[in-house]
Amino acid sequence: MILPALSGLSVRRSALVMALAAATALAGCESSDLLSLSANAPLPEDVKNHMKANGMTRSSPIMVRIFKEEAVLEVWKQKDTGRYGLVKSYEICAYSGKLGPKIKEGDRQAPEGFYWISKGLLNPKSDYHLAFNTGFPNTYDRANGRTGSHLMVHGSCSSAGCYSMTDENITEIYAFAREALQGGRQQAFQVQAFPFRMTPENMARHRNDASFAFWKMLKEGYDHFELTKIPPKVDVCGRRYVFNAEPESGAFRATAACPPMSLPTKLQTAYQTLQSQQALAFDKAVSSLEAKAAVAEQEAAAAAEKKAAQELAEAERVAAAAQAPEKKSSSPLRGLLGLLPGGGSNR
């Protein structure tokens, strides 16, 4: 978790939730009442105190970031400055599939991309404790013929195309979502789902992956948020994501060619500077990886050569051992022949 100081109260909070659940059961309530209890659980006091100290309120808008490779889900909240700050980070208990986007129904992949979660996508009666639907397929997914349904972030720590959390963690995440959507300051919150933290070094490691072009596109949105700490405006045109852009004429249409467009001047300048810096870092990381790969290849070749030499030496030893009995058996015969008249060595 990002906030070590917050973890001290987790045991007491879990005990409180369990006690409330037990009391509800003793009162003769059914499982739907227990679900309601979890769906309406308040944010922990330590989280509230942290938000207050950082210019956030319970009803402040939120944003969620997901990183598959690191198995982390982050909750961000808007500060009184308008920018967003990280409130808490949660371990993803399980996600389905591998790195890479969801393509079609049944591939068991968890989605990657930019999604918007409205109140109607919250599910307080999920079979997996609590859940919210990611909204897959979104406009980008549909424009690219991607299919799938019921792709969730949920509890119960099991996954078939979803992002699964522990019940305790999804209860807190759900509370963040509920409070923000009820606060009246946002109609939907953004979920950014990435394969990994999109640093130049990580991009270099995955440069040969079939999904690399898709990830480069996602990285534009990732970088915009890193620069502004404000969730990017997301549109789709030409079957691709565009971020914080305004069309200079016409409108963005998902399957039509993108019209001429522009970014705010300050953001454009900052983004170009960042791109230049990260291009250098990417090239440096690639060079380092290739150098390590070359060394590893040389070491592997040397090891293979050594093994081959050892195997040859062993084969020669075995062959020599197989010939030894024949030599030994012929020695007595030569001795006997030497005792016979005329059989000596001196002729």
Q: What do you see in this structure?
A:
With 347 residues, this protein is an alpha+beta fold. Helices cover 44% and strands 17% of the residues. The chain is built from 8 helices and 14 strands. The protein has helices at residues 10-26, 31-39, 45-53, 139-143, 167-182, 200-205, 212-228, 265-339; strands at residues 62-67, 72-78, 84-91, 94-95, 113-118, 122-123, 131-133, 152-154, 163-164, 188-194, 234-237, 240-243, 246-247, 261-262. Strand 11 and strand 12 form a beta hairpin. Helix 7 crosses helix 8 (265-339). It is globular, with a radius of gyration of 32 Å. The protein starts with 9 loop residues before the first helix and ends in an 8-residue tail after the last helix. Residues 1-32 have low confidence and may be disordered.
* Low-pLDDT residue intervals, each spanning 5 or more residues: 1-32
Strand content: 15-25%
Secondary structure class reads: alpha+beta
What is the gyration radius calculated from CA atoms? 32 Å
Quaternary structure annotation: single chain
Specify the overall morphology: globular
Pattern of helices and strands? HHHEEEEEEEHEEHEHHEEEEH
N- to C-terminal separation? 98 Å
Instruction: Give the number of DSSP strands.
Output: 14
- The DSSP helix count reads 8
**Fraction of residues in helices?**
40-55%
Average pLDDT reading: 86
Strand order of the largest sheet: 3-2-1-10-5
Main β sheet profile: 5 strands, mixed
